[in-house]
Amino acid sequence: MPEYWPGMAGDPGLIRIGAGLAGSGGCPARQAAKARPAMRPARSSRARKPVLDQFPLRGVMDALDEAEFGGRSQEEILARLAQPDSSGHAAVSRWQRHAARNYLASAALIVTQATEPVSHYWVAQRSADQVTWELYAWGRRYQSCDGTVREHRLIRYGSATGRERDMAEVGLAAYTTAHGKPASWPDPWSAHFETSAAPAPAVRRVRVVEIGLLDGSCAVLFEGTPEEAEGLYRTHTHDRIRAVSSGRSADPGTVCGDCKLITACDSLPRLPGLLGISDPAAPLRRWSVTNGRHYDRCPAQDHLLRLHLPKENEYGPEAVRGQAVHEWLATNHGGGFNAVCTIWDIPPVPDDWTGGRWHVTGDQARYGAQMLASHADVCPFHRSGQITQVRVEPELTFHDAAANVVVTARPDLMYTDDGAWVWRETKTRMQPLPAGLDLLREVPQLALAVLLMSANALGGNPDGARIELEWLTPQCGDVVLLDPHYPGLIRAARDVINGLAAPWHADETARARPGQHCARCPVRRWCPDAEIPDAERPDAGAAA
Question: What is the secondary structure of 11-47 as a DSSP string?
Answer without folding.
Answer: -TTEEEEEHHHHT--S-HHHHHHHT-TTEEESSPP-P
